[in-house]
Amino acid sequence: MKRFAPLAVLTLAFSLAMLPLEAPLDAQQPATKTLSIATVAPPGSPLMRGFEAWNRELRRRTNQSVQFRFYAGGVQGDEPELLRKIRGGRLDGCTVTSLGLSQIYRPALVLQLPGTFLRYEQLDAARTALAPTIDEGIVRAGFHMLGWADVGQARIFSSSPIRSPRDLVGKRFWKRADDLIIPSFFEVVRTTPVTLALPEVLGGLQTRRIDTFLAPPVVAGMLQWAGHARTMTDIPMAIVIGGTVLSDRAWQTLTEQERAVLAETGAQFHALGRRNSRAAERAAADTLVTRGIELVTTSEAERNEWRRVGREVRTRVASRIADAALIERAAAFGER
Predict the structure, then answer these.
(1) Which end of the chain has fewer beta carbons closer than 10 Å to its terminal beta carbon, N or C?
(2) Looking at the domain assignment, is residue 171 inside a domain?
(3) Residue 144, number of CB atoms within 10 A of its CB
(4) What CATH number does the domain containing 228 carry?
């Protein structure tokens, strides 16, 4: 049976736009090198059209010496399985969420500290400052980050209004296995976590095994989860991050010119994707409201309660993510 990877959360995180055209490398390139990349995006989806545009530009800029081969639709498995396949030489790269990043280089999670980055300008500033340090750690772990993505601002969806942490009492809240942060959230708030794999969430909502979940609006709509929720809380709990990674083994097969083109086009592609995904997120939230989801507005006092929860969760998980100095640098860009 096919397993669909948690990478589904990345489906609208990248752009459809073609990259700027530049002069190709010199002629007389060697035979084409094909990099295998796994993604959950279905064939013909916005993400795959964006990937295909990136592939065309990569081929043109390298004079056909490098290209991608995409495995779409999650056919290669979930994130832990994808990383095992990459380390075993069966794949060259994949798209990952914070779950996958944590299994490559755990300190990357400083960009997703709970209760810290609730606005994109905060995350952008932190990423600009910290990405070089994090990228070095990812390289030491045997990977290269081809581009950072924003999955979206995760909000609480539920069967009844959730305005403050107290409203979660008695709720059956979806929990994803292997998540390093969410267990501490459940230690702070009084709710009942239910562990389900990503493909099981829709069924869990249909059978009411769960009645509450955390997800960006784009994801909730795309995976049909929102159809089984009545409310969406206005305050985001966190911004979910991700990106596209390539194994160092595959990186080493490329020439210096090819690496430069791959890095440059990857950075351009993902930057455009982050910009466009934010517009898509706003549109998705508006669409959910027009389709009957109640947008639950929180007061400043209630927002302060959520900030307090976020700070407490951050305190609990910080030592498991990164050293104190990196945590402090990251937190300086976020919510006080």
Answers:
(1) N
(2) yes
(3) 20
(4) 3.40.190.170
